[in-house]
Structures are given as C-alpha cells and as structure tokens.
Amino acid sequence: MKKIAVVCKKGYSCHSGFIAVIRYLAESGEAVSMSDANGLVYPNLSIVPEEEMMAEADLVVVLGGDGTLIHAAHLLNGKAVPVLGVNFGTLGFLTEIALSDVEEAIDLVLKDEYSVSSRKMLDVKLERGGEVVLQGAVLNDAVINKGALARILRMDAFTDDGIMTSYRGDGLIISTPTGATAYNMAAGGPVLFPTLSALILTPICPHTFANRSVVLPDNLKVTIVLTEANGKVFLTLDGQEGVEMRRDDKLIVEVAPITVDLIKSPKFDFFHILRHKLGWGK
Fold it and tell me: Is the full-model pTM beyond 0.85?
C-alpha cells in the first residue's frame, strides 16, 4: 500500500473538484493523509500534521497552484518522493495535471507507469558578521528586493574566482531553471529548459543597460554582498520565507544536493505549457 500525502491550498476544500479528487484517492485503497480535512470523512483518509505525513509519504499529491507545490517541496526537505501536481490555479507551470485528467494520472502513478522531471534546487545562506541569519533550499528563486521607499541598491557579485560584477538597481533574482518562468521572466530574464544544470542572475530594474541576465554553470558558488542600501532591503526564498537584509550582509548561493521529482503529464510537455499558457509564438 502506498502512503499518499495530500497538500492542498487553503480555502479549496469546498471546491467540488477538490472533493472529487479526495474521494477518488480515498477509494483507491491506498492510505491517504491530509493535514486538514475540513470535515471530510472517507475510508483510508487520515488527518495528521504536515511534517508527519510528509515524512511517511511514498507519493505527494498537490492540489492547488505552483505556490502550493513549492510549499510541498519545502516540506519534503530533500526526501526523494514523486510529486503529482494537480492545477487548481491559473498558469500552473509546476502543477501540470489538469483537473479533467486527474483520475487518469492517479491511475498511472499507482501502477508505476509514469515518468518524472527531476528539478534541482539552490542552497541559499545569508551571513551577517560570520553568523548564519537564514538558510534554506529554493525550487524557484531567491530574491533581493528594496522596500517601497528605499533608493537604488548596490550589490557586488563574486564567484570562487573573484569579483564577477556590481549591480545597481532595485534588486536581484537568483533563479533555478525551474524558476526561469516565474519572477525571472517577468524581470526580463531568459527562459531555460527546467532540467538544465544552471543558475540565473537577473537584475531588477538595473541602473545601467549593461547589467543583463547571466546564466552560470551549476558548479559555481555565487556570493552577493550588499554594499549600499538606503532604506529597507528584503531577501525572500521562494516567496515562502524571508528576512530583512543589512549592509555588508553576504548571500551565498550554490546548487543544493537535493532535487524535487515532479511527475510529468502524459499529455503535455514544457513547450506545450509555454505555447498554451503564455501564448508563446503567437
């Protein structure tokens, strides 16, 4: 029997599609766990804390949008468990499975007739005076951004070989290939195939046109030093957690030793998503 952990976006439990998916999972004969059932009662459906159900899971089913899937990836914390993302949101780059195809997708997964797209994560560490202020792995991106009333920021970027460049602008996005179609793309960064081995640095509203996005090999460790800031500056990891940065703080980013295995849709590929959800090529 597979142990299935269901992670859902809050407020979706009254959605008729959500109830149908939970019922189908519960009637599959597998052991299904949720952190909050909101009054739903089915055989084989257990209510347990999120951390506990993820620690025991053989399969994770995400019902929501990309933000919900990113939350599930953080809960897994590197555990090698396939993740089936069912799109209840709008775009759904990570949650590939449409609600109309969910029963077919679940059947294929339970019969082990599926393939995964293995996505690399970045390990991000913020140091202040030699002490670690914040550390975590990100699936999409780490973002340095100025507050509403702050002036232009200045940051120096280093690799192991020394200084790479200096950035002046509103902030900086350090993105995985998976996150290339998120904030990175909105800021003018490149679209990368999500399983590539790389990381992307994209400045936000750079002061000079010479500062463009750069794609680096994933064997490089990048250090960003905040050298000038007049006003509040924030670091956010995958939009899930964050902290205020101070002058001379060091942000150290390198590829994490963990991945997230996303179950691929049997009907769509990455370019189909770009064409149909972004109108790519039209």
Answer: yes
